[in-house]
Design goal:
heterodimer, A: 929 residues, mainly alpha, 3 domains, two-stranded antiparallel ribbon, 37 helices, 4 strands, 3% strand, elongated, B: 89 residues
């Protein structure tokens, strides 16, 4: 279970840190650090096994039929990323304690950071690609929260939206790609996919799958032309940038390339797409970084450039290129995190990040300056530092590829140019900030930061040096293990060493350093040239295109969805007409083989009443009250029909629902016009008549066709099993509370939600109360007629008793919780009508919301209860007991479930009607809602 | 004997239901129609009880009971609506 605990601990940490609002900053930091530190220790304990070549797996079956499991695996690559995510995460949390001002909410930042950490751990440790995608999306969402941490700043909000849009869009492409991948292989299991290289690459969908997966990776890793979100994400607090843009968020895309390297790489299309994207990003990022005056802007473009470098390495067709890529992942994470933190200190201590103002910081903060300079030198690729080693490997690999055929020599040249640009911007970072004269109107007097704020940087810079000088000392094991995972079990011989002798890569490094310094000294001309170019504003372009897309969507939506209910109904009916009516024409004979029963007088009369009632409802639809009365005839007749054709449960339900409906409509009609105005043109009336007549004909024909044919329905099963399986003879009720209990649970939840929604919509709704009735007569004086009051009061106990009776016998005879609930609700509503709300409130202090909640809870816990007996959710139990004088009685767990149904129905019905009834009451009184 | 009686009463109730419907249709005032509907409810009670008797079962008794007990609530609601507009004050 150790593996599962690593992301779980991190998630737990997110919850813990969100509750530390009342504690001091140190306590909050300490508590937050606790979980990732434990997770890191657990990872370290697992490391030796992974180094020896083992892949640790843990799987919990989740939706086995869909092939979706909760599955984690830890191989070399995952281990490397877990180390980076936890290690740098811990340093960032520690750093943020000193970075945040007292106005900023610390628990909020920590909770988001830990959530993000969970998401990243989930990505790198997933052994199921759907699960991987889930965590992928979680990084998009949690990074959105992190970037918009200073939500009051428009920049932060815009940057966050941009990041979410780009990475979220890429996430959708990735999902499509992963689904295709799962389809090709026939499994979502990562182990299976990684072992199916031939199947995947031989498949017709390979290209499209690859492009979709790469889109996901490139948007996340800010590859050109999707890079533009990353500089805008710099509006986040610096600890967040340090975390997101060194070790985590942007590395997720790189991780994806590495993860699917064994399965997807190796083809021409992979090499071309990945290497060219990487190359253009490398050059573009390095070039733009040189012109950024904002320190974080410089680092942002430098990050883009380095990500391009890693991508390019994954796209080179040499085995060692992937090793170099992994090595650079480590190195970049280390030096970039420390640089971001150093920038944060400078910003914190001076109040600005503008390199035109920041000069000569050496004198004010020599210690921080030294650390930053070492890190920047690592970024430039200066010998004795870690950046140098991976850059050398990179240069060496560019010499060995054959990517562009006879023009392959271009790649090492371009790589050297990018190296020179990297040296130039690193030189600018060092020289402009720490030397280059005196500072120009700084908002704050600069000084060294608090002692402990530097600790994370010291650790990281020490790592730069140790890795740079003794490369085999720490990274060798993890590098070999990660390469083993990426290359699919085969690691070429390689040696990371400081000195390889005088060779071509060394020459390229030398050219890069000298060229870079030259570039920096001659930067005036470059800046002039750059200023003459038309400027491209990514934010403006992005905003405009988003605006255009939104407008387009709005137009399309309003074209199809214009808010007219008549139109929706018309469209729905027309489609029903088409799809249900069409097959009827293909039938030879409407009637089936069944013998028709003779028409007797009673049935004919009932049918006549139904038809007259229905037609009258339509004829009088403008006079709404009359139309309602006609509708009641239909309702009543339908109940009679249910009785006549042996559906007593339905009849009982229909009767009670009928009463509730009338009350509901009367309540609503009070605020509505009493007469519907004439709105439709004659042509429209004809059209509508045609559609509704057609629909009536189709539905009637289908009904006739159905009932005249002998049908095998599922009712035989329920009839046979209701008594033996559910312990009741009333099949309808046994289905509701037992066989289909889970559906019923869902339905009462919907009922509860609907009731809450109605309550929420109605509360404090301002409505005009009509002063007289539709004919202008004043309202009657008597509010609570005494006759009604006394009758309704004496009816209440009777109704409750009947409802209790109906409830109890429900399992064996017509009845049950739903009907009983409606009866109770009607009896109570009658009290409301007869006595008014205030009378009820004075006698009955009930909170309907709590009633609904407790009803659903009872039903739910009845279902959960079966777990305690080792049975699946909602297994029912029943037994017969012989009690003296009473006789044999049956006790069933379904009865308890039915109590839940009953309570929910009572609560929901009363809440809806009481809130509607409350609307007209002024002044506002306390209601039972 | 009983069967004949039931048949006759069936016919009588059927006629009265049709007359109720007639009153409901011609009105002329809304109270007339409400009264017609309420009477219809009462006749339906008789109809259901009769049907149970002719089938020799008590299975439909509860339906009749519910109409008798709660059927008038809708009538009350409509009447209160006509008199006061707001039915829950």
């Amino acid at each position: 279970m150790t593996l599962l605990w690593i992301p779980l601990l991190s998630l737990l940490g997110s919850i813990i840190s969100s509750t530390t609002g009342k504690l001091t900053r140190n306590q909050s930091t300490g508590l937050t650090l606790l979980m990732p530190v434990i997770a890191l220790l657990m990872t370290i304990s697992l490391a030796p096994a992974v180094f020896s070549g083992e892949v640790i797996r843990e799987t919990i079956s989740w939706i086995p039929l869909l092939g979706i499991n909760i599955a984690f695996r830890l191989d070399g690559l995952a281990l490397l990323f877990v180390f980076m995510i936890l290690g740098i995460g811990i340093l960032v949390i520690f750093y943020a304690r000193y970075y945040l001002s007292s106005n900023d909410s610390m628990p909020k930042l920590y909770a988001y950071l830990m959530l993000f950490m969970t998401a990243m751990l989930g990505i790198v440790m997933s052994n199921n690609i759907i699960q991987l995608w889930f965590f992928w999306e979680l990084t998009s969402i949690s990074s959105f929260l992190l970037i918009s941490y200073w939500w009051h700043k428009p920049d932060a909000r815009k940057g966050a939206i941009m990041a979410l849009t780009v990475t979220g869009g890429g996430g959708l492409a990735l999902l499509a790609g992963l689904l295709l991948l799962g389809n090709i292989v026939g499994s979502y299991d990562l182990d299976v996919i990684l072992a199916s290289k031939e199947i995947i690459q031989g498949h017709a969908w390979y290209e499209i799958t690859l492009i979709l997966v790469l889109l996901g990776a490139f948007t996340k890793s800010a590859q050109f032309p999707f890079h533009f979100w990353l500089p805008h994400a710099m509006a986040a607090p610096t600890p967040v940038s340090a975390y997101l843009h060194s070790a985590t968020m942007v590395k997720a895309g790189i991780f994806l390339l590495a993860r699917f390297y064994p399965a997807l790489a190796g083809t021409d299309i992979w090499f071309i797409l990945v290497s060219l994207t990487g190359l253009s990003t490398l050059l573009f990022g390095a070039y733009v970084a040189l012109f950024k005056h904002d320190l974080k802007g410089l680092l942002a473009y430098s990050t883009i450039s380095h990500l391009g470098l890693i991508t390019l390495l994954f796209g080179l067709d040499t085995k060692l290129a992937a090793v170099a890529a992994i090595f650079h992942i480590i190195n970049h994470a280390i030096f970039k995190a420390s640089l971001f933190m150093a920038t944060g200190i400078i910003d914190h201590e001076t109040g600005t990040r503008d390199m035109r103002k920041l000069n000569g910081m050496w004198r004010f903060m020599p210690y921080t300056a030294t650390l930053a300079m070492v890190a920047a030198a690592a970024m430039a690729g200066v010998p004795l530092l870690n950046g140098f080693l991976s850059k050398e490997m990179f240069f060496a690999e560019t010499l060995h590829q054959q990517l562009l055929g006879s023009m392959s020599w271009l790649i090492p040249v371009l790589a050297t140019i990018a190296g020179a640009l990297a040296v130039a911007y690193s030189a600018r970072f060092i020289h402009d900030v720490f030397f280059n004269g005196d500072p120009i109107d700084l908002p704050k007097q600069p000084s060294e930061p608090p002692r402990y704020m530097r600790v994370p940087i010291e650790i990281l810079v020490a790592l730069c040096l140790v890795v740079g000088i003794f490369p085999n000392f720490i990274v060798d094991d993890v590098l070999k293990a990660a390469s083993f995972a990426v290359l699919g079990g085969y690691v070429p011989e390689f040696e990371v060493a400081l000195w390889h002798g005088f060779n071509l890569p060394l020459l390229m490094s030398a050219i890069a350093v000298i060229g870079g310094l030259l570039l920096y000294t001659q930067r005036r001309y470059l800046f002039q040239f750059q200023a003459s170019l038309p400027s491209l504003n990514a934010k403006k372009t992005f905003d405009e295109s988003i605006y255009r897309i939104t407008k387009w969507c709005q137009r399309k939506i309003s074209d199809s969805e214009n808010g007219s209910l008549q139109r929706y109904l018309m469209l729905m009916f027309v489609f029903v007409l088409l799809f249900a009516g069409w097959p009827l024409f293909e039938m030879n004979q409407l009637g089936g083989q069944k013998q028709l029963t003779p028409i007797d007088v009673h049935n004919a009369m009932g049918a006549a009443l139904l038809m007259v009632g229905t037609i009258s409802t339509v004829i009088w639809y403008r006079a709404r009250v009359v139309s309602l009365l006609m509708l009641s005839v239909v309702g009543l007749m339908v109940s009679v029909v249910f009785t006549r054709f042996s559906a007593p449960d339905l009849a009982l339900t229909q009767l009670t629902v009928e009463v509730v409906t009338i009350i509901l409509l009367m309540l609503a009609l009070f605020f509505l016009p009493q007469h519907s105005p004439k709105e439709s043109s004659s042509v429209r009336v004809v059209r509508d008549i045609a559609i509704s007549a057609g629909l009536g004909i189709v539905v009637a024909s289908i009904c006739y066709a159905l009932i005249t044919r002998p049908l095998e329905s599922i009712s035989a099963f329920f009839l046979a099993n209701a008594k033996t399986g559910g312990g009741g003879t009333n099949v309808v009720n046994v289905i509701l509370v037992d066989f289909r209990g889970f559906d019923t649970l869902g339905e009462i939840c919907v009922l509860g939600i609907a009731a809450l929604g109605i309550y929420k919509l109605l509360v404090n709704l301002p409505l005009v109360i009509p002063a007289s009735d539709s004919e202008g007569r004043p309202w009657a004086k008597e509010r609570y007629p005494i006759l009604l009051a006394s009758i309704s009061q004496s009816l209440l106990p009777l109704a409750l008793m009947v409802s209790f009776y109906i409830f109890l016998r429900g399992h064996n005879l017509p009845g049950g919780g739903f009907i009983a609930g409606l009866v109770t609700a009607v009896a109570f509503i009658l009290q409301y009508i007869a006595h008014g709300s205030s009378w009820i409130v004075a006698r009955l202090t009930i909170n309907y919301r709590k009633i609904i909640a407790s009803g659903i809870a009872i039903a739910l816990f009845t279902g959960v209860g079966s777990w305690f007996f080792g049975r699946p959710f909602m297994t029912t139990w029943f037994e017969y007991f012989d009690i003296p004088f009473i006789g044999e009685i049956e006790l069933a767990s379904a009865l308890v479930f039915d109590v839940g149904v009953y309570i929910t129905v009572v609560g929901a019905t009363l809440m809806i009607l009481a809130s509607l009834g409350q609307l007209a009451n002024e002044p506002k009184e306390e209601v039972n809602t | 004997m009983l069967e004949t009686v039931i048949l006759i009463v069936f016919a009588m109730i059927g006629v009265s239901l049709l007359l109720n419907l007639w009153r409901l249709l011609i009105g002329p005032s809304v109270p007339d129609r409400i009264l017609a509907l309420d009477t219809m409810y009462i006749n339906t009670i008789a109809l259901i009880i009769l049907y149970g008797m002719s089938m020799g079962t008590s299975l439909y008794f509860e339906a009749a009971l519910l109409i008798a007990m709660l059927g008038f609530v809708s009538t009350v609601a409509v009447c209160k609506y006509l008199l006061r507009g707001d039915i829950i004050e």
